[in-house]
Design a protein that fits this description.
13 strands; 381 residues; Aspartate Aminotransferase, domain 2; four-stranded antiparallel sheet
C-alpha cells in the first residue's frame, strides 16, 4: 500500500477514534484480514456505477471463477463462514424449495454432519445454523481411526466435514481415507480450507483428492474483499448452495454479497493466479528474518523462520523460550505488544510455549517497528 493511501486510511479511522494496528498474525479476520489488492479496489469502484440482476451476477461470476480454476462449479459467498453455512444447507436441503424454506428446521431430513473431534471449532456453528447436528468422531490426542468414521455413518448422515487448518495441526482422520469411506457410502465430503492460501496449489488439491465442496476465504491470501469467500465443487451441490443463499429466501439470505464485492473477488482471484508465489514467499520470509535478526543476542530466546504444509503454510517467525528463560510469559509479552502504540498483534504457541509472527501484510517499516518493540519487551525484567 502506498504511504499516502495509508495516511488517508489512518486519518479516516482517526475520525471515529480508531488507530490502525500492525497485524502480525497473518490473515486473521478479527484484525482486518489482509490489504485488498488494487485490482479488486478498482473493480469494486467500477462495479458500483451500474445496477444488475444479482441472481444473474451470482451465476455468471461463479461460472467465471470455475473457468479460471478449471473447476466444475463455483459460488461467491459471504466469507468462508458463509460458505460453511451454504455447504450444510446444500447437503441437507439440496435444491428442494420445500426443504430450503424450512431450514434450520430439519425434521424429516438427513441432517447429521460427521466431524473429527480434533476439527471442532467455533466456526462449525455455521453448520449448526443450517440445522445440522454434529456427530463427533475421534479419541483423545487428536487421533481418529477409520472404523470410527464407518461406525458413525447412518441413515441420517448428510455429509462428512474435514477441516484443513494450522489450528488442528493435521490431527484427525486424513482426508484421503475420509473421502474413500464417505464415497463408499455415497456421502459427500465438505472441506474447509479457509486460511490455506497461499500456496496456490491448495486451490486444486482438495478437489483433486475427491472432495465434493471446498471453501476458502476471499479476504485472506487472495486479498480480495474482506467479506467474501469462495465455494468450489460439484455443480449440483453448488446450485443447491446458490438456491439457499442470497438474494433468495433461504438460511443464507443474511449473508448477502454485494455486486461490488462479487466483481472485486473475481479481479482479486485473477491477480492472485497471475502472481509470482516464489517472490511473495521470499518477501514474507525476508520480513520474518528481520524479526529473528533482532533477537539473536536476547538470552533464553530461540527465534527461527519456519514454513511447512500444515502449521505454517507461509513463512512465520517463531519465538521460543529455552530452559534459561527468566523473563515474562508469552501471554504477558503478547499483551504488552497489544497495549503499546502502535498496537502490535501477535500469536501464541500452544500452552504459552512461545510467540508467533506472520507478517503477511505489514510494510517493511512496520516490521522493523515490531522487531524493535519485541526486543524491548523481551528484555524487560
Amino acid at each position: 500500500m502506498a504511504k499516502n493511501q495509508h495516511k488517508t486510511a489512518t486519518d479516516l479511522y482517526g475520525k471515529i477514534g480508531i488507530q490502525p494496528i500492525i497485524h502480525m498474525t497473518g490473515t486473521t479476520t478479527r484484525y482486518g484480514g489482509t490489504l485488498i489488492r488494487a485490482e479488486a479496489q478498482r473493480a469494486m469502484i467500477e462495479a458500483s456505477g451500474a445496477l444488475v440482476d444479482i441472481n444473474e451476477l451470482t451465476v455468471k461470476t461463479g461460472e467465471k471463477i470455475a473457468e479460471l480454476l478449471g473447476m466444475e462449479a463455483a459460488l461467491i459467498t459471504s466469507g468462508a463462514a458463509g460458505a460453511l453455512l451454504m455447504q450444510a444447507a446444500a447437503v441437507i436441503a439440496g435444491s428442494n424449495f420445500s426443504k430450503i424454506t424450512k431450514l434450520p428446521n430439519t425434521d424429516g431430513m438427513k441432517n447429521e454432519i460427521i466431524m473429527n473431534k480434533a476439527h471442532r471449532m467455533g466456526y462449525d456453528q455455521m453448520y449448526r445454523a443450517a440445522g445440522a447436528e454434529i456427530v463427533e468422531i475421534g479419541l483423545g490426542g487428536g487421533r481418529t481411526e477409520s472404523w470410527e468414521l464407518e461406525a458413525a455413518i447412518g441413515e441420517n448422515t448428510a455429509a462428512v466435514a474435514h477441516i484443513v487448518s494450522p489450528g488442528n495441526g493435521g490431527r484427525g482422520l486424513p482426508l484421503g481415507p475420509t473421502i474413500e469411506i464417505a464415497h463408499k457410502h455415497d456421502i459427500p465430503v465438505l472441506v474447509d480450507a479457509a486460511s490455506m492460501l497461499p500456496p496456490r496449489d491448495n486451490l486444486y488439491k482438495y478437489i483433486r483428492a475427491g472432495a465434493d465442496l471446498v471453501c476458502y476465504s476471499g479476504g485472506k491470501g487472495i486479498r480480495g474483499p474482506q467479506g467474501t469467500g469462495l465455494l468450489l465443487g460439484r455443480s449440483d451441490l453448488i446450485e443447491a448452495a446458490r438456491l439457499n443463499s442470497a438474494p433468495n429466501n433461504g438460511v443464507g439470505r443474511s449473508g448477502k454479497v454485494s455486486k461490488e464485492e462479487m466483481m472485486g473477488i473475481v479481479a482479486a482471484l485473477e491477480a492472485f493466479l497471475a502472481g509470482d508465489e516464489e517472490s511473495e514467499m521470499a518477501e514474507i520470509r525476508g520480513k520474518c528474518e528481520v524479526l529473528v535478526d533482532h533477537l539473536v543476542e536476547v538470552p533464553g530466546v530461540i527465534a527461527t523462520v519456519e514454513q511447512d504444509d500444515v502449521l505454517y503454510p507461509t513463512p512465520y517467525a517463531v519465538v521460543r523460550f529455552d530452559t534459561t528463560w527468566r523473563g515474562r510469559s508469552a501471554e504477558q509479552i503478547v499483551q504488552a505488544l497489544w497495549d503499546g502504540s502502535p498496537s502490535i498483534r501477535a500469536g501464541e504457541l500452544d500452552a504459552g510455549r512461545g510467540i508467533t509472527f506472520s507478517p503477511f501484510s505489514p510494510t517493511n517499516d512496520e516490521v522493523e517497528t515490531a522487531a524493535i518493540r519485541l526486543r524491548e519487551e523481551l528484555l524487560k525484567g
